[in-house]
Amino acid sequence: MPDSYTVEHIARFAHRADGIAMPAEARDRLKRSLLDALGCAIGALGAGPVRAVRALVEDLGGAPLCTLIGGGRSSPDRAGLYNGCLVRYLDFMDNTARQGEVCHPADNTSAVLAAAEHADASGADFLTALAVSYQVQTRLLELPTMRAGVNYTTPLAFSVAAGAGRVLGLDEGRLAHALALAGVGAVSLATIQAEPVSNWKGLSSGEAAGRALHNTYLARNGITGTLGVFDGPLGLFQLVDARLDTDWEREKLDIGLQVSIKRHNAEFQSQTSVDLAIELRDAHALAGAAIERVIVEVADGAYEVLGGGKYGPKLDCRIKEQADHNLLYLVAVALLDGEVWPGQFAPERILRDDVQALLRKVVVGPDSSFTRRIPGEMPVRMTVQLADGRAITGEKTDYEGFHTRPLSWDQVRGKFDRLTTGKLDPALGRDIADAAQGIDSLAVRELTALLARVPAD
């Protein structure tokens, strides 16, 4: 048995976060991710699956302690559930990556925000807690998760507990038990992302975040958890046949510098491919009817999840949750429409003959040399073969929004404005954007009061 457990080291890191200097650029990019997450959440209002979650929250009730985006209040864990489903549903928020692994650190936002609102925390304390969550979740990607058949909501449970426990003021001991409680029951299967993809792909992160927050409150009330969840007998290290080498005593709050924000409404590993498809379409005035074949070469992870590898064949594409995780569809619709935004996932667009025919002409294959260039790049090579015999080839290493080329505040604000158009009054949108940018000088409840004013649908 170890002298101390991994959850104790993570708890100590989270507890001492006030003493860790966050680089100014990392702080600024974290606030951009916050605004981006809120735009994704507001943009998802009215979607059928999240309306079903909202109906359940209302049916079951809950102490009205925390704000639901779109109005109303519920308990912290149910606010974490519902608001988390809103953030995740469009699949348009931020990402971090390691070779063969990706996660959405914005999945932490709803639960940490609910805990911060309940604690009446300052915006600065909330931002530090959110930075802790981002750091923990991304560091846990160094363990095989998706590669080992474990869904990335498993690291999310630990990171929510770390950030929420910190903002709730848990001491190191109870923080360690919060991590243990949240993580031990959170080992979910990567088959969530496999065909046939269902609504749960877009909701599981919200459920995991709400459940982890619930378990953090149990630890606050003195419930103990399995401290050996990582390194004990039958723990996570044994399950994935790997260990974590992170030195939590030296860990920083700098993951914000590695965060990418999506430019296109598509799975993260497809971003450069979608970008390149649009560039080739525009540069060569490509028409869908003239395309005979499209060959796309990507990293191993993108092929396995999106291109017809071990997560299943991609020719049957019928619903949004399938389409936004289907590189055949994403490349085809990008070549036809010149963009990939929520409108490209309307049922009538997915099922239209033009895109259904073209996606069957897209062939995706892996290139292991591309895999070795992750996370510093996200390479793709694409060849479009035309009916007149021409072949047009292009290659890209990344896209605007990738962590090496981050979106500016103006670009993030433009994305927020487009996602929220028709969802709220423009003046309220400006106030929310200003509050996200200035969160470290506000109280959290000033931001949540604005989110309560967003119309429900």
Description:
- Belongs to the PrpD family.
- GO terms for molecular function: lyase activity.
- This is MmgE/PrpD family protein.
- InterPro entries: MmgE/PrpD_sf (IPR036148), MmgE/PrpD_sf_1 (IPR042183), MmgE/PrpD_sf_2 (IPR042188), MmgE_PrpD (IPR005656), MmgE_PrpD_C (IPR045337), MmgE_PrpD_N (IPR045336).
- This protein has 457 residues and is α+β, with helices and mostly antiparallel strands.
- 48% of the residues lie in helices and 9% in strands.
- The chain has two domains: 280 residues, 2-methylcitrate dehydratase PrpD; 129 residues, 2-Layer Sandwich (60s Ribosomal Protein L30, Chain: A).
- It has a four-stranded mixed β-sheet.
- β8 and β9 form a beta hairpin.
- The longest helix has 21 residues.
C-alpha end-to-end distance? 53 Å
Query: Largest beta sheet, briefly?
Result: 4 strands, mixed
Number of helices: 20
Radius of gyration: 21 Å
The pLDDT mean sits at 97
Class of the largest domain, according to the CATH hierarchy? Mainly Alpha
| Mass-distribution shape | globular
| H/E element order | HHHEEHEEHHHHHHEHEHHHHHEHEEHHH
Low-pLDDT stretches: none
- In the residues, how many domains can be counted? 2
CATH topology of the largest domain: 2-methylcitrate dehydratase PrpD
Q: Strand pairing plus helix content: what structural class?
A: alpha+beta
Strand line-up in the sheet with most strands: 7-6-8-9
The appropriate CATH architecture of the largest domain is: Orthogonal Bundle
